[in-house]
Amino acid sequence: MPERAAVRPDGVRVSLAREAEKKTEPTPAAAALDLDDTFYSGGSYGIEIQEESDIYTDMAEHAAMSYAAGQDSVARGTLQSIVKGNADPAALKLWAMLFDLLRLMGERDAFNALGLEFAQTCELSPPSWDMFDNKVADTENVGDADPGYVMVQGALVGDDPLFTRLLEAMSGGGICQINFGRLAGLDGEAAVKLAKLLNQARRRKLGWTLEGAEGLATRLVKRTVAGMRQNESLWVLLLELYQYLGKAAEFEEKSLDYAITFEVSPPSWEGIGAAAPVRQGGGPLRQDTPKPAAPVLSGELLEGKVDAVKALLKPGAECRLDFSQIPRVDFDSAVALKNLVAGSRASVLVFHPNRMVAEILRMAGVDQVAKVELSKH
Fold first, then answer.
1. Where does 296-373 sit in CATH, by number?
2. What DSSP string runs through 262-275?
3. How many angstroms separate the CA atoms of 13 and 5, rounded?
4. Range 26-38 average pLDDT
5. 100, 150, 240, 293: which could form a disulfide with 355 (CB 3.0–4.6 Å)?
6. pTM above 0.85?
């Protein structure tokens, strides 16, 4: 079959295969995941991390481009057509995009109706309409928390920057405390990545501690039914959580169900060993000298005009850009932003863009030159 091509706004046809190769080049942090690739030696889970299917990637890009061009109804129709009745974990990203789009359009009734459909279809808690009202206050705390504390929030997908942060924590060999209390759901790729990270941290005796793991395990039990060959990635994560929780009996029972269901050798119990103590209060420790609040950008970024961002970048310095109040960025501006950041020699964090903007930033390659922390549901 001939390669399909994507048409960018400038009319240049770009090979999807070649473009995907560029985006999957490992970063130095990501390379840490391959330092010890043994994953439950003596028992194979038979899992391989898969990229999102082409249909979901294509639909996400089409919706984002339509919205960036001011075609809100087209973007909405595109997303509605793919998420309706779709419980595939790989489609969580598109559900999140549609929720954000309805907020941006001010369609609260449609948002509430979508939340009900999402809960019934995906059996997950929908996001709250009011989350945008609190986001500006939340951005003041970005970067202020102890780097050893990680809060997992919203719908977690495989390309979430959270995984880069966990890889960096693993590379540093320090203790990491992960809180799952606000996790609404996760797709298959995210489940496998998280299980593999936890597995390697445990095998290296890094002393990682997990908050909210009990509740997450309880929810995963409902999605992993013996005899039903589906959601294998969730089985993988559940078995790893049992290791951290010290639930040997539950692990043995579930590992046997897993082996029978997927016709593989059952993994063996290894346990967590001596875990590091959980911090009192269960929250992040504040640094002695908190960072100043990041400047809040506002308004749309259109026609390649990114002067507002240019004024904030200082060569060799750290720059945090709050995108929570930027409703729309077109493709030309996203490309201009990438070029600006690449040439600034600054360390840039773009945080809390809505999902429609985040997809445009990804398509333009902004995530290759800056850290992008997505808005959370």
1. 3.30.750.24
2. HTSPPPPP----SP
3. 6
4. 43
5. 100
6. no
